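2.7 Reproducibility. Because tokenized structures are sensitive to small changes in the input, we list the exact sequence used for DeoR family transcriptional regulator, including any N-terminal residues retained from the expression construct. No trimming or masking was applied before prediction.
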Amino acid sequence: MLTSQRKTAILDTLSRDGQVLAKALAEEFGVSEDTVRRDLREMAAEGLLQRVHGGALPASPATADFAHRQSIESVAKRAVARAAAEMIVPGQVVIVDGGTTAVQLARCLPRDLRATVVTHSPSIAVELVGHPSVEVVVIGGRLYKHSIVTVGAAAIEALSHIRADLFFMGVTGVHASAGLSTGDLEEAYMKRALAAHAAETVVLASADKINAASQYRIGEITMASTIVVERNTPAALTDPIAAAGVTIVRA
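Resulting structure tokens (single pass, no recycling of outputs):
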């Protein structure tokens, strides 16, 4: 079997099963595990998959910068944001992560909502200027320009006195076994810290993030109490997540 044929077969298996194991692929292709690992390294370098111990997972395609992602509007993304916004009860303290879906969430909040929003995203803060009854607490720190959020020790320290009811988390990867992940190490630390300061974490997940993984792990899938997905997300992708005890909300 040619290298190109092996790589096509690997992608087909990833699409079907959500993961591949190097040992099983070596047996299937009749080649050494070293050969399979080389294929996986090359495919990972091309952004086609995410390598993990013993094999690989589908790679998240959600890696473009904020400006590019914001230009890609979709009905499904707005539906996810709207469903998330409806979870907020007046009087609550909620943490809103950065990201384009989170910006849509802010836009979906009723103008007369009375609540406190804590965010490390300047974009979210600006969206809420026109909400007279929403108290906005902005977490400072080093600005990570790719996602337009603050990160680092100063941002994490600023969270020390905050206890929120809900945290709306943005991710680039949601996978039943690999958990929640993102494409930047400091962002992963920040998201983990934000989740630790909320009673419940709600993950906003467009279809391209389900059954995918990025380089930096935020935590187990059970870090999320709820994951909001697009209405037409296949049950085959969400059933393993639901089996772990996470509530799936279809928007």
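Residues 64-69 have pLDDT under 50 and may be disordered.
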